[in-house]
TrEMBL record:
<dbReference type="InterPro" id="IPR033730">
    <property type="entry name" value="ProRS_core_prok"/>
</dbReference>
<dbReference type="InterPro" id="IPR006195">
    <property type="entry name" value="aa-tRNA-synth_II"/>
</dbReference>
<keyword id="KW-0963">Cytoplasm</keyword>
<dbReference type="Pfam" id="PF00587">
    <property type="entry name" value="tRNA-synt_2b"/>
</dbReference>
<keyword id="KW-0067">ATP-binding</keyword>
<dbReference type="InterPro" id="IPR002316">
    <property type="entry name" value="Pro-tRNA-ligase_IIa"/>
</dbReference>
<dbReference type="InterPro" id="IPR036621">
    <property type="entry name" value="Anticodon-bd_dom_sf"/>
</dbReference>
<keyword id="KW-0547">Nucleotide-binding</keyword>
<dbReference type="InterPro" id="IPR004154">
    <property type="entry name" value="Anticodon-bd"/>
</dbReference>
<dbReference type="InterPro" id="IPR044140">
    <property type="entry name" value="ProRS_anticodon_short"/>
</dbReference>
<dbReference type="InterPro" id="IPR004500">
    <property type="entry name" value="Pro-tRNA-synth_IIa_bac-type"/>
</dbReference>
<comment type="function">
    <text>Catalyzes the attachment of proline to tRNA(Pro) in a two-step reaction: proline is first activated by ATP to form Pro-AMP and then transferred to the acceptor end of tRNA(Pro). As ProRS can inadvertently accommodate and process non-cognate amino acids such as alanine and cysteine, to avoid such errors it has two additional distinct editing activities against alanine. One activity is designated as 'pretransfer' editing and involves the tRNA(Pro)-independent hydrolysis of activated Ala-AMP.</text>
</comment>
<dbReference type="InterPro" id="IPR002314">
    <property type="entry name" value="aa-tRNA-synt_IIb"/>
</dbReference>
<dbReference type="InterPro" id="IPR050062">
    <property type="entry name" value="Pro-tRNA_synthetase"/>
</dbReference>
<dbReference type="GO" id="GO:0002161">
    <property type="term" value="F:aminoacyl-tRNA deacylase activity"/>
</dbReference>
<feature type="domain" description="Aminoacyl-transfer RNA synthetases class-II family profile">
    <location>
        <begin position="33"/>
        <end position="470"/>
    </location>
</feature>
<dbReference type="InterPro" id="IPR023717">
    <property type="entry name" value="Pro-tRNA-Synthase_IIa_type1"/>
</dbReference>
Length: 569
């Protein structure tokens, strides 16, 4: 590529709405251009990085046996209604109507469409397993779009979906994808960590997130340096729920109770669109004298805590002063932790200030289809200690008994799930087994945030001059900076020769023939983050040498002209 024929647009200052370094640097390097909140044009320089990220993902997905297709961005509401997600997804799901007034979703992900493909295309056990993927535009109407490509509303995701005959098969497909992700993130040249994760609203069992390690990451990762224990904070806290943390004054009792039913019941009672916006519900009892008050603590998607005192909630006035046995009778369980819908979740909000101040607090927690009761975290403990109970902190013993836990911050760039029959059941995706009997397919899904990778890579690799791309995803691998391309014939001749040689060797090289002054030229490429720079000047050429400088190097190295191609390759 010749810079004069490409589009380069750098800025000295980042726009004031850019908060974190990756956002600032991508704006300054002219990689993205804001169109609206969370919506960006990928400018030529940024798109080159995106394409490299996509190509690595594509190669590794193909190698792992996944098959590429391309599903529509705009998807009929009917499919989303079949799985209930039309209602459950809430405002994050972008909806549009066509001229006939029919509803459509702009895909935030594609479980419904792929399950529809598979239920009509796959008939027999002989066609399984199969894993389809696409790299496609997504839209999520995020409550707080921010940090540039890191949390956009429109973004690119690679999402893959595996279908198997049985659970064992699904677990095998999951492992293949997990390994492919390790290969992908290694090729990106990024420091990352895979952690056990909660399944969240998607349902099913078994899930890992892949995080790029960065201090600015939104997520806390908990791991033991002495073993392979690693979990995101939510999953780690779910484990810490067990009474081994020494807070419970009595053993936990585990009773079979379907959490989903409980949550839905509460939502219905409250007449609130809980299924849409609320991840978890905590019921707490506050015994003031002889009276017992019920509190509902609604933990929303973003860990924002909302307290709703029951007597302020319409339709629940009859339970204003419910006794414990009334609650037992009504909800079929002791007051305690009820959510999130259908999944295991820590008692995150239990130690919230409000609750910790209650005189006598009884709580429980959900594991899928089980409910723990009998824990009493608050009793006899001073507030600060109570406040600490829900947190996993550095130095805590690792749940596997090996070593002490460390905590670091990460950016979620990938997520793999075992979904089981969550979608195949609702959408009746079956195949005929060897005996000709229909069986539900076992499904897995696997996402990578393609555009988020750019932000994450920069958060991990930058300095005061700009971005430092790992070579595998850099917009260009090598930049040639001639000193006087228009003035010196020797410089022009050597530069052109080297440029051709590098291209022939398959190196992604850019020749800066814009005629900028050296200082401005160097500053641009350091900001853009090209990992290798070669300076061609008359002075060096007199000794038959060129100057090489790696983006992280503090000084240049003189390299003989004839050796440069091999040197940067
Ligand atoms: P987050 O916790 O950051 O909101 P998520 O858990 O909702 O992400 P998934 O549904 O697991 O996201 O989607 C798979 C991947 O898509 C994520 O691991 C992430 O890399 C990427 N992704 C999700 N939301 C966004 C977004 N708003 N902008 C850019 N990438 C995103
Ligand atoms: Mg999200
Ligand atoms: Mg997440
Ligand atoms: Mg996720």
């Amino acid at each position: 590529m010749r810079a004069s024929r490409f589009f380069i647009s750098t800025l000295k200052e980042a726009p004031s709405d850019a908060e974190i370094v990756s956002h600032k640097l991508m704006m300054r390097a002219g990689m993205i251009k804001r169109l609206g909140s969370g919506i960006y044009t990928y400018m030529p320089m940024g798109l080159r990085v995106i394409r490299k990220v996509e190509n690595i993902i594509r190669e590794e997905m193909n190698r792992a046996g996944a098959v590429e297709l391309l599903m529509p961005v705009v998807q009929p509401a009917e499919l989303w209604q079949e799985t209930g997600r039309w209602d459950k997804m809430g405002p994050e799901l972008m909806r549009v109507k066509d001229r006939h007034g029919r509803d459509y979703a702009i895909q935030p992900t594609s479980e419904e469409v792929i399950t529809d493909v598979v239920r009509t295309e796959i008939k027999s056990y002989r066609q399984l397993p199969i894993n389809f993927y696409h790299i496609q535009t997504k839209f999520r109407d995020e409550r707080r779009p921010r940090f540039g490509l890191m949390r956009g509303r429109e973004f690119t995701m690679k999402d893959a979906y595996s279908f198997d005959r049985d659970v064992e098969g699904m677990q095998k497909s999951y492992k293949i994808m997990y390994d492919a992700y390790v290969a992908i993130f290694n090729r990106f040249g990024l420091q990352f960590r895979a952690v056990a994760a909660d399944n969240g609203a998607i349902g099913g069992s078994g899930s890992h997130e892949f995080h790029v390690i960065a201090d600015t990451g939104e997520d806390a990762l908990v791991y033991s340096p002495e073993s392979d224990y690693a979990a995101n904070m939510e999953a780690a806290e779910a484990v810490a729920l067990t009474p081994t943390r020494g807070a419970a004054t009595q053993p936990l009792v585990k009773t079979p109770t379907p959490g989903k039913a409980k949550c839905e019941h509460v939502a219905e009672l409250l007449g609130l669109p809980l299924a849409q916006t609320v991840k978890s519900i905590v019921l707490a009892v506050d015994k003031e004298g002889a009276e017992t008050e019920i509190w509902l603590l609604l933990l929303r998607g973003d860990h924002e805590l909302n307290e709703v005192k029951v007597n302020k909630v319409p339709g629940l006035s009859t339970f204003r002063f419910a006794t414990e046995s009334e609650i037992m009778e009504f909800f079929g369980t002791k007051p305690g932790y009820l959510g999130p819908i259908g999944t295991k979740k820590p008692i995150k909000v239990v130690a919230d200030r409000t609750v910790a101040n209650m005189n006598d607090f009884v709580c429980g927690a959900n594991e899928e289809d089980f409910h723990y009761t009998g824990a009493n975290w608050g009793r006899d403990l001073p507030d600060p200690v109570v406040a600490d109970l829900r947190n996993v902190v550095a130095g805590d013993p690792s749940p596997d008994g090996k070593g002490a836990l460390s905590i670091q911050r990460g950016i979620e760039v990938g997520h793999v799930f075992q979904l089981g029959t969550r979608y195949s059941e609702d959408m009746k995706a079956t195949y005929l087994d060897e005996t000709g009997k229909p069986q539900l397919m076992q499904m897995g899904c696997y996402g990578i945030g393609v555009t988020r990778i750019l932000g994450a890579a920069i958060e991990q690799n930058f300095d005061e001059k700009g971005i430092i791309w790992p070579a595998s995803i850099a917009p260009f691998e090598v930049v040639l900076c001639p000193m006087g391309y228009d003035r010196s014939e020797a410089v022009k001749a050597e530069t052109d020769k080297l440029y051709d040689a590098l291209l022939a060797a398959g190196v992604d090289v850019v020749l800066d023939d814009r005629g900028e002054r050296p200082g401005a030229m160097f500053a641009d490429w350091e900001l853009i983050g090209v990992p290798h720079r070669v300076v061609i000047g008359d002075r060096g050429l007199k000794d038959g040498k060129l100057e090489y400088q790696g983006r992280r190097d503090t000084a240049a190295t003189a390299v003989p002209v004839a050796e440069m191609t091999a040197f940067v390759k």
